[in-house]
Amino acid sequence: MRNLIEEVFKTRVFNRYGSREVPALACSCRENNELHENIFTRYIEILDKNLKPCRPGHIGEVYVTTLNNYSMPLIRYKILDMAVPSKKKQCSCGRGMPLIEKVVGRTVNLFKTKKGELIDGLYFNTTIWKRKWAHSYQIIQEDYDSVLYKVKINEKPGESELKEIESSVKRVMGKDCSVKFEFVDKIEPTKSGKHLYTISKIK
């Protein structure tokens, strides 16, 4: 999308990361696609499951403390986002702020294996998003070894394509993972009105 927008509008596109409760958490610059943390008004931590700082290059959960909200301070607020702290200590632009390598997505968008590995939901999207027969879809991890594809279809898919998707899922989730397909009339949005492409029910 970035490449297309830059080509059409003949300008640079920057990535700005924030949440509804705490906007403007981090932003990219002209030198780097990684995100500069907004340390002047927010304290951002990327922590592992033991609430220890996540190692650079590894996925952790984002916690935010607001530094300028005197009406309703948020302290170590768990915003349910997953991100990767940068391996770089400083950007070449010279700003000197801590860097986030990338924001991976919501905790519900990450699938989990029995071995404790985290799989980015984007992987599962790529197995189906260019299939002409799929009008819309939602991929749900029901258990460690169970993945459900809910699909509103334009036409009946071929068995070979379904087998191809199943094989792709088993490649990352394990050969014992059950991959099911449910063809539906409509993909229901969440209570917030958003359409989630991937949902993990594993806590």
β-strand percent reads: 25-35%
H/E order of the elements? HEEEEEEEEEHEEHEE
Uncertain regions spanning at least 5 consecutive residues = none
Number of strands: 13
Lateral arrangement of strands in the main beta sheet? 1-2-3-7-6-5-4
The main pleated sheet reads as: 7 strands, antiparallel
Shape: globular
Mean pLDDT: 92
Number of helices: 3
- Report how far the terminal alpha carbons are from each other: 31 Å
> What fraction, in percent, of the residue positions are helical?
10-25%
**Rg, please?**
19 Å
Strand-pairing-aware structural class:
alpha+beta
Could you write a compact summary of the structure shown?
With 203 residues, this protein is α+β, with helices and mostly antiparallel strands.
Give a description of the structure:
The longest helix has 15 residues. Helices cover 14% and strands 34% of the residues. The chain contains three helices and 13 strands, in the order αβββββββββαββαββ. The chain is an alpha+beta fold and 203 residues long. The strands form three sheets. It has a seven-stranded antiparallel β-sheet, with no helix packed on it. A four-stranded mixed β-sheet has the order 12-11-10-13.
What layout of secondary structure does this protein have?
Blueprint: H1 2-9, E1 16-17, E2 26-27, E3 35-37, E4 42-47, E5 60-66, E6 77-85, E7 99-106, E8 110-112, E9 118-120, H2 121-126, E10 134-143, E11 146-153, H3 159-173, E12 178-183, E13 198-200
Parallel strand pairs: 10-13, 11-12
Antiparallel strand pairs: 1-2, 2-3, 3-7, 4-5, 5-6, 6-7, 8-9, 10-11
